[in-house]
Amino acid sequence: MHSFDALAQQFAAYFNRPHFPQSPPSLYEPAAYILKLGGKRVRPVLCLMGNELFEEIHADAWSAATAVELFHNFTLIHDDIMDKAPLRRGKPTVHGLYGDSTALLAGDVVFVVAYEYLSKLSATNLPKILALFNKTAKEVCEGQQLDMDFEKETAVDFDAYINMITLKTSVVLAASLKMGAMIGGASERNQNLLYEFGKKLGLAFQVQDDYLDAFGDPKKFGKQVGGDIMVNKKTFLLLHTQQVASAAQKAELESLMAGNAPDKVEKVKALYKACGADGWAKELSQQWLTEALQHLDDIAVLSRRKEHLHNLATQLVQREF
Amino acid sequence: MHSFDALAQQFAAYFNRPHFPQSPPSLYEPAAYILKLGGKRVRPVLCLMGNELFEEIHADAWSAATAVELFHNFTLIHDDIMDKAPLRRGKPTVHGLYGDSTALLAGDVVFVVAYEYLSKLSATNLPKILALFNKTAKEVCEGQQLDMDFEKETAVDFDAYINMITLKTSVVLAASLKMGAMIGGASERNQNLLYEFGKKLGLAFQVQDDYLDAFGDPKKFGKQVGGDIMVNKKTFLLLHTQQVASAAQKAELESLMAGNAPDKVEKVKALYKACGADGWAKELSQQWLTEALQHLDDIAVLSRRKEHLHNLATQLVQREF
Lengths: 321, 321
Known about the structure:
Two copies of one chain form a homodimer. In chain A, 75% of the residues lie in helices and 1% in strands. Chain A has a two-stranded antiparallel ribbon. Chain A is built from 16 helices and two strands. Chain A has two domains: 1-138, Orthogonal Bundle (Farnesyl Diphosphate Synthase); 187-321, Orthogonal Bundle (Farnesyl Diphosphate Synthase). Chain A has helices at residues 4-15, 25-36, 42-52, 59-83, 94-98, 100-118, 126-151, 158-183, 188-215, 218-221, 227-230, 236-244, 247-258, 264-274, 277-298, 303-318, and strands spanning 87-88, 91-92. In chain A, strand 1 and strand 2 (91-92) form a beta hairpin. By secondary structure, chain A is mainly alpha-helical.
């Protein structure tokens, strides 16, 4: 049994290899570039942990974990094109460096290489993992499209928003865990409980992400605080504030969002606080974490095997950076 | 045994079904739109013919054929974004109608649904077909990137150009045939011969395509003659002319390509003729057809089973539209 950090280190060593041919470099250098930007590698490690919850880590789990991480990077490349984002982890985005067309194509090829890793799975695991991978990939596309649809709307229904976040963020975490569980030989009931754990964890994680973007300690957070507020991103905090604000507060919020005043971040944060969005978000995130852990508890496997996942979930949601 | 036309009709009936969920329509309507634009469905029918060359058509061949046609449409959506093409088959392109971001995402999801059809393959066929599909998808990405690279160069090496066309166009035809052959239980030697047949056929097809774009009968061709010339597209005709032209002819060609004079198409065609590119192209296409048919001849299966593929190859290369 390994902790997240131990497996993250093992995965980093495993993943640090050439995933692409050398030629043509005009295609594969941009593809390799995104991987060099790093990341927490949460999804592949969840896949390994999902396997280890039930059984020693099987070679297939490494292939599935690699496929999941490549898939995640494919979505980052394409999302950054759609969002016209200049930076990713403080470095230029792929399209920023190589142009939209090459980035589009580099994203495509990273996606294909993800499927190449899947095609290495043993015959028993391949069909079911491929099916789950496809279902998840479709859902992520749906989530991204809904996110873009919502950007054009002024008010978004809360349930529709949760559905979008589930599709865009949660299902990949859930599917990574479930793939590991499948490879670990878990029963279908245990697989599904782990999937639900991942889904709730994803929601809790996203609320905490939104909270930190506004209220995180700049020294610990690492990113510019208020980034979401500056670009009027629809977050849990904004949605809640829009729901509970008085007419006067709503008017102030709209006028702040219509402009880019130097004190925009401070004033919107003050409105969030006045509407209790900060405390509400902390509670909501804690509630989803509790629900996630309940699913983990229900899995029929020795409690001590669950410790690392339990700790990880708590850390991810209660993190301050 | 069925002719191309008979199988094309059967495939059209089979393919004419909803391939996508209904929701969200903002994602799946654009995805469905490209399929409604139609097409000759050459690739899926080649897959069916590759199967029928050896054995009665297996259910898996329909899934593989559908995956191949969806893959082709995915590449069309993304290529049209990269080429900034306003029209496809005389209708607005997906990105022209729905915007670049949605088209990018719709392309992605069409690609995923192609893999969904592959995941339906029987356990014996899935691993090898998935591996060939992935290899081919990577090569097509490489071909598209090389094509974009070449656009920026004034002179392109002929062998490099053939390599690009092979990757961008031929390998999908070759792989479609080979997938069918795999499903039909062909020996590896026969599979590879059919693959080589498809590769040469793809080259012959592309030369004829370039020829028709310049010298086709406008009444039969259906597209505007000279489209390639107007946008300075690198074609077999242009490359050959650049190779054999005199210094004066080269200068004239360059000056024509630098502008958009009303008589540009006529003058470039005159240069092509003066350099013998028209006759050269006809010969080259015929030579590749001969090589393709040689591979078909070498396949160890009764000659009468090869008739329909033989006829199709001849028709595709000698077509006038």
